[in-house]
Amino acid sequence: MTFDDLKSKSMKDQLDQKPNGERDKGLRFLSSRRWYPAAMTLGILCLGLLVTVILLIIQLSQVSDLLKQQQANLTHQEDILEGQISAQHQTEKSSQESQWELKEMIETLAHKLDEKSKKLMELHHQNLNLQEALKKAANYSGIHPASNCPFQFPILDGVVSEETQLLMALGGWFSFDAPLV
C-alpha cells in the first residue's frame, strides 16, 4: 500500500463514521444494487420531464410569437380603421360645408328672385295704370281706342322721346326738363 491509498482509505473511513464513533449506514445502503433500478427510473422520469419542459417552452415561445403577430395585425387594423373614420369625418365635414354653401346660395337666389318679382309686379302695376290712363285719355279726347297712334306730334319727332310725347298726349305740359332724344 502506498501513502495515497492510506490517505484515501482514511478519508473514506472518516466519512463513514459519525462523530460519536458509529458508522453511517446511509452510504452503504445507497451502494447496494437494489437502488439502481429506482435511480434509473427516476433519471428517465427526470429526463422525460426535462424534454417535456423544453417542448412546452418551445410551444410557449411559438404562442408568444403568434400573439405578438396578432397584436401587430390588430394595431395595424386599428390604424386603418382610425384613418377611415378620420376620412369619413372629413368627408362629412366638407359635405356639411357644401350644404351650408348651397343653402346660402339658394337663399341669395331666392332673395334676388323675390326682388325681381317685386320689380316685375311693380312694372306690371305701372303698365296697368298706364293702360288705364290711356283708356281714360282716349275716352276724354274722343279718339277711337282702335287707333294705333292716337296722338301724333310731327313737330316733336326726333326732338323729344316718345314717353314725353305720351305725357303731352295725356294732358301733361311740355317742359325743358323733358328727356330729349
Automatic annotation (TrEMBL):
Transmembrane segments: 35-58
Membrane topology: Single-pass type II membrane protein
This protein's UniProt keywords: Cell adhesion, Cell membrane, Coiled coil, Disulfide bond, Glycoprotein, Immunity, Membrane, Receptor, Signal-anchor, Transmembrane, Transmembrane helix
Region described as Disordered: spans on this chain: 1-24
Coiled-coil ranges per UniProt: 106-133
InterPro entries, A to Z: OxLDL_rcpt1-like (IPR052332)
A single BP term in Gene Ontology: lipoprotein metabolic process
Subcellular location(s) per record: Cell membrane
Primary location group: membrane
Protein name per UniProt: Oxidized low density lipoprotein receptor 1
Classification lineage: Eukaryota, Metazoa, Chordata, Craniata, Vertebrata
Gene name for this UniProt entry: OLR1
